[in-house]
């Protein structure tokens, strides 16, 4: 498609999505008629082309489309008030579907205003169409798999007839069966030959497909001629029907594997898009109304209740909440959101209720940005495919030249060195020339080149490392810089208590009961340490013996902690500000905070019961891994969504320079740093495990994901470590 567009005047390539199989181009109607361009591209490529006329040149980054269904289509005069296009009009009914284009800027027309203005026409928002590309790729996989299976099924009998020592092997009857089977294979592979004919006729640009077609067709033609001479009683050479079958089968097998890879990648992208909530609770005129999140506009107020996902990016106007941002940042510690705090789509409100003012629409929020970034990186295609096509253009002529030289050399050798007759010399020379053309088929050449990398991939599997392609194995050795995600990759990914004050059994009983009402990661870590410590000594009073609760009026305070009442006295457990210890500069609290620990304190009135210091600890042998990388001349970096001071402290602990430690990053910001490292240092490898790492993984030259991480991360990575221990795998 790109080659077809390149030869046309007045046509500019806008985007080429290898993943979905969609190419967009812009045509200047003053230079070339768009309809003529569409017909030429269809003939040259065999692909479907649709011509869409637009009077504007808005970038896709500033506008978005929404499709509405109308029971009755308005007049053209009514629709001219909007930037829209009628997509389908029912043949019998008066209704149809219309695409409306909206601007992503404040003060622009909102989707809800369109619904209100056209209510009399029975307008409604169409469901999200997320499966049309998946269906197309699934169809491609099915067709290619069927052709591969059919070709293999037809090739096996030919191999048996040629290679097995059957009675009357090579007889005319057997050869007739071989001709029939080979012809069926040729018919089955007709789409490949049709594409090659179009490429040469319209574009005069041979590629790998043309080279494969020429090699297999010449092999078939020679075999048919050899068979015809055998039938006439003048055999001169054995036909190569088995070679034709093997080549076609291997070519289609490679195409099928490529399509399956596309299928897995596009499904992974849609799984990422599923993080986007479908509905939002719109607060308008004192009423709370559920609406489709696509209808939400700038400055709208949305209510997010406890346990709900935040539908789009915005700023908190009212309330406070603990928000789990692990889907975006990978960090297990919830973030406190109060008035003025920014919130992001796809994150979850754990405790509390907040009202937010919309700052980004669903088409441009954090989830959409991640999907667009991953799609752009995944859809760019492999540069090796373009290189292979360029080499194929030269290789075709090289193969034809080599075959001609082979013919002349063996003709001379046969006639003047071996003293064959002219007819025998010609037949012998033709046989060698055909052999050269068969060998020049890119399929066996590709297999031969892949053998060393296949051995490396097998060795990697033995050590728990899966290279998803030979390209990944080859590129990994060029790494100049390695960027790590922190949480779950270099660290354990779970908060652990590393420092605490000694507590009496009754105090442990109170703390255990206090934190039991919360699922906050800090509360869970404190509960674990209490249970573990008491299981090794003596049981906590009343925990193993099921006695009545001593606490009453337990309440979770978002952004603070937990409070309850014990014998008429208020007891609090939470951060330093919530417990009031920040005002008194408690020495233990200050010590823990200075060490970048998460503090959980328990106080009863003015008395301090216990103070815990928590941290996400580094995995064993991480410092050794960093030391080995730096000794080899590879720079190391850590990119994390955790707060910057904590990331810098972690970097110092494992031996990564503080200047290479970056905290407080969103997924797209991680990708930006990876992109900058590529420009500054060359080949960059990124190692991550979460959905939030998928953008950086696709941006990196080599991407490594952990097998225990998110499916999205593994789908975006070129290398997968089976397990979660990066240092252990690196030492094997």
UniProtKB/TrEMBL annotation:
The chain crosses the membrane at residues 144-166, 172-196, 208-233, 239-257, 394-417, 429-451, 592-615. GO terms for molecular function: ATP binding; ATP hydrolysis activity; copper ion binding; P-type divalent copper transporter activity. InterPro entries: ATPase_P-typ_cyto_dom_N, ATPase_P-typ_TM_dom_sf, ATPase_P-typ_transduc_dom_A_sf, ATPase_P-type_domA, HAD-like_sf, HAD_sf, P-typ_ATPase_IB, P_typ_ATPase. It is a multi-pass membrane protein. Its main location: membrane. One of its GO terms (cellular component) is membrane. It is found in: Endomembrane system; Membrane. It holds the Pfam family Hydrolase. Keywords: ATP-binding, Membrane, Metal-binding, Nucleotide-binding, Translocase, Transmembrane, Transmembrane helix. Signal peptide: none annotated. Residues 275-374 form the P-type ATPase A domain. GO terms for biological process: copper ion homeostasis. It comes from the Eukaryota. Belongs to the cation transport ATPase (P-type) (TC 3.A.3) family. Type IB subfamily. NCBIfam families: ATPase-IB_hvy, ATPase_P-type. This is P-type ATPase A domain-containing protein. It comes from Saitozyma podzolica. The lineage of its organism: Eukaryota, Fungi, Dikarya, Basidiomycota, Agaricomycotina.
């Amino acid at each position: 498609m790109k080659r077809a567009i390149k030869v046309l005047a007045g046509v500019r390539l806008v985007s080429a999505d290898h993943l979905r199989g969609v190419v967009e181009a812009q045509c200047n109607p003053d230079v070339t008629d768009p309809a003529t361009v569409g017909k030429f591209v269809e003939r040259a490529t065999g692909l479907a082309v649709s011509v869409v006329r637009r009077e504007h040149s808005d970038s896709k980054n500033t506008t978005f489309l929404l499709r509405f269904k109308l029971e009755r289509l308005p007049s053209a005069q009514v629709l001219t008030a909007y930037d829209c296009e009628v997509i389908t009009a029912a043949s019998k009914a008066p209704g149809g579907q219309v695409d409306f284009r909206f601007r992503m800027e404040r003060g622009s027309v909102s989707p809800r205003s369109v619904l209100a203005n056209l209510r009399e026409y029975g307008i409604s928002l169409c469901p999200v169409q997320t499966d049309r590309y998946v269906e197309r790729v699934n169809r491609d996989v099915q067709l290619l798999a069927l052709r591969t299976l059919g070709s293999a099924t037809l090739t096996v009998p030919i191999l048996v007839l040629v290679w097995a020592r059957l009675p009357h092997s090579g007889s005319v009857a057997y050869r007739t069966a071989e001709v029939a089977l080979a012809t069926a294979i040729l018919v089955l592979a007709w789409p490949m030959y049709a594409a090659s004919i179009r490429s040469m006729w319209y574009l005069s640009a041979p590629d790998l497909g043309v080279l494969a077609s020429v090699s297999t067709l010449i092999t078939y033609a020679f075999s048919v001629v050899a068979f015809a001479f055998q039938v006439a009683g003048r055999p001169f050479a054995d036909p190569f029907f088995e070679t034709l079958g093997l080549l076609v089968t291997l070519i289609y097998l490679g195409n099928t594997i490529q399509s399956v890879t596309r299928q897995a990648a596009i499904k992974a992208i849609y799984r990422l898009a599923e993080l986007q909530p479908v509905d939002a609770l719109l607060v308008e005129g004192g009423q709370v109304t559920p609406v489709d999140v696509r209808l939400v506009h700038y400055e709208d107020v949305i209510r997010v209740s406890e346990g709900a996902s935040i539908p789009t990016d915005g700023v908190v106007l009212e309330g406070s909440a603990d928000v789990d941002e692990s889907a975006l940042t990978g960090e297990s510690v919830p973030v406190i959101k109060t008035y003025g705090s920014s919130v992001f789509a796809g994150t979850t409100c754990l405790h509390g209720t907040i009202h937010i003012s919309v700052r980004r629409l669903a088409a441009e929020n954090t989830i959409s940005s991640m999907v667009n970034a991953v799609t752009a990186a995944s859809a760019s295609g492999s540069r090796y495919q373009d290189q292979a096509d360029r080499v194929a253009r030269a290789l075709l002529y090289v193969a034809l030249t080599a075959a001609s030289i082979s013919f002349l050399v063996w003709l001379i050798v046969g006639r003047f060195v071996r003293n064959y007759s002219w007819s025998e010399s010609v037949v012998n020379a033709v046989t060698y020339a055909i052999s050269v053309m068969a060998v020049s088929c890119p399929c066996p050449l590709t297999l031969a080149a892949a053998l060393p990398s296949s051995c490396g991939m097998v060795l990697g599997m033995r050590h728990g490392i899966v290279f998803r392609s030979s390209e990944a194995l080859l590129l990994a050795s060029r790494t100049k810089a390695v960027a790590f995600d922190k949480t779950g990759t270099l660290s354990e990914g779970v908060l652990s208590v590393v420092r605490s004050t000694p507590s009496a059994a009754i105090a442990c009983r109170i703390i255990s009961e206090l934190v039991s009402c919360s699922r906050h990661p800090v509360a869970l870590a404190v509960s674990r340490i209490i249970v573990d410590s008491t299981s090794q000594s003596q049981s906590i009073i009343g925990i193993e013996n099921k006695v009545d609760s001593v606490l009453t009026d337990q309440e979770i305070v978002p952004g603070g902690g937990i409070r309850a009442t014990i014998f008429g006295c208020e007891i609090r457990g939470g951060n330093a500000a919530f417990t009031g210890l920040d005002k008194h500069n408690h020495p233990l609290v200050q010590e823990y905070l200075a060490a970048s620990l998460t503090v959980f304190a328990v106080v009863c009135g003015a008395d301090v019961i216990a103070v815990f210091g928590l941290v996400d600890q580094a995995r064993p042998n991480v410092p050794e891994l960093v030391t080995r990388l730096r000794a080899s001349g590879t720079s190391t970096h850590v990119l994390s969504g955790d707060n910057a001071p904590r990331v810098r402290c972690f970097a110092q602990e494992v031996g990564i320079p503080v200047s290479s430690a970056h905290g407080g990053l969103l997924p797209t910001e991680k990708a930006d740093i990876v992109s900058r490292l590529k420009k500054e240092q060359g080949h960059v490898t990124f190692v991550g495990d979460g959905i939030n790492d998928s953008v950086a993984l696709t941006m990196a030259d080599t991407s490594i994901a952990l097998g225990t991480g998110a499916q999205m991360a593994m789908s975006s990575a070129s290398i997968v470590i089976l397990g979660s221990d990066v240092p252990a795998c690196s030492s094997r």
